[in-house]
Amino acid sequence: MGPTSTLRHEHEIILLVLNGIERGAGSLRATLLDDPDWLDTIVDFVRNFADRCHHGKEERHLFPRLEERGIPGAGGPIGVMLQEHEQGRAFIRSVAGAAPEARAGDTEAMDIASEALLAYVSLLRSHIAKENDVLFMMAERVLTPEDQTELGAAFDRVEADEMGEGTHERYHELAHQLGEH
Ligand SMILES: [Fe+2]
Ligand SMILES: [Fe+2]
């Protein structure tokens, strides 16, 4: 599987979880009554799978290689993608900050968490659409076969070093649980 196919596949998994987040955040009080750990599970998935694993591959490997191949960084499409990753991290920080009080039943904290989650869902959906339909199309035109091989190997290293054996599979499983509820 080429590097953009790997990332497109991860997008599908993230989109599945975004559907679950949207449903759960829409009635957060009921969601937390049913599963008091729900916010912690979401923060864990987003920080580890979406951010460390997936955005790590993009930020540390794909984007720098695309810049070498002439796609503009700052002020161009890659700069926008990086900014959106940062916005997403900020939303998730709000969720994590509000989680303990939300779990304890504080209405204000629930509102903060649910607003930040819904903002995250809409940010990430449009972010993923831009990557799939614009940036990755450009990438598929400019990356050489050697780039593809090297990026594939770099992605495998991210999996091994950052995530550890079996972690990716565990998050796939979790994504299906979160998405299907
Ligand atoms: Fe991204
Ligand atoms: Fe992505």
Q: What's the number of helices?
A: 7
Distance between the termini: 30 Å
Principal-axes shape call:
elongated
Average pLDDT reading: 94
Helix content: over 70%
Question: Which small-molecule ligands are present, each listed once?
Answer: fe (ii) ion
- Count of distinct structural domains: 1
Query: Based on DSSP secondary structure assignment, what is the total number of beta strands?
Result: 0
CATH class: Mainly Alpha
Sheet having the most strands: none
Order of helices and strands: HHHHHHH
CATH superfamily: nmb1532 protein domain like
The helix/strand class is mainly alpha
Low-confidence stretches: none
Query: And the CATH topology?
Result: Four Helix Bundle (Hemerythrin (Met), subunit A)
| Spatial extent as radius of gyration | 17 Å
- What percentage of the residues does DSSP assign to strands (E)? under 5%
CATH-scheme architecture: Up-down Bundle
List its traits.
181 residues, Four Helix Bundle (Hemerythrin (Met), subunit A), elongated, binds fe (ii) ion
3D structure, described in words:
By secondary structure, the protein is mainly α. It has a single domain (3-180), classed as Up-down Bundle (Four Helix Bundle (Hemerythrin (Met), subunit A)), CATH 1.20.120.520. The protein contains seven helices and no strands. The two termini are 30 Å apart. The structure holds fe (ii) ion (FE2) (2 copies).
